[in-house]
Amino acid sequence: METSGIAIEVRTGVATLRMERERANAINPGTVEALTEAFAQVTEDDAVRAVLLTSGRKLFSPGLDLAFLVGLDRPAMHAFMGSFSSWMQVLIDCPKPVIAGMGGHAIAGGLVLALTADWRILREDAEIGLNEVRIGLPLPFGVARLLQDAVPPSSLAEIGLLGRNFRGEAARTVGLVHEVCSADRFDEVCRARAEEFAAKDPAAFATTKRYLRAGVSETLRAADALYRDEWLDCWFGAAARRRIGEIVSELQARRG
Length: 256
What we know:
Strand content: 15-25%
Number of helices: 12
Shape: globular
Strand order of the largest sheet: 1-2-3-4-5-7-10
Radius of gyration: 17 Å
CATH superfamily: 2-enoyl-CoA Hydratase, Chain A, domain 1
């Protein structure tokens, strides 16, 4: 199966969702739509007992597709952030176990995608982080709440306020990932963990997950939209636009 750049393979109860979209899986409206549809498919498939989200590209995901999104006006960007929030909600509320296998860099929105999962595995040479503040953007409210739910309070400043990136055991120490493994064992470990989750009773797992995720899920549903305009004020602010423009120019120069 394939859903607009998301290849889906179901084997022995595990659905592997392999992102193979353009621009190294950068997040744009098409990516949000494709992932939402892919998760709907595997959620409804009774043969699927666990979901392994990974990438067929060099990167897991570099985050928001700045080259595309920088051209949107405020109403269009407002609509995109609404769909981004709804997409996060779908992934957080997925009743089945979700394992994020980050075999390449997962930065900003790429890491947000991984944070919606129940278990995160990082290849030791990959880099992850939420670098929004370093380009003059706040974390969207829902992302900040998701981060609070995922890592210990002692790590919030280093990850969210300083915007540092992490590799290897440092990523596990701050709580962003559960496991770090070498490149030669990465696929094996991801598969083994997915099968371990798949062996759990579906109803017991789904109910427990819903209880554990209730706080972030309900907060996101109730309050994320209230802070959207505040985030957009920063997105369209002079400092962020200047830095985003610089980043887009750098990316275009690399692509030649």
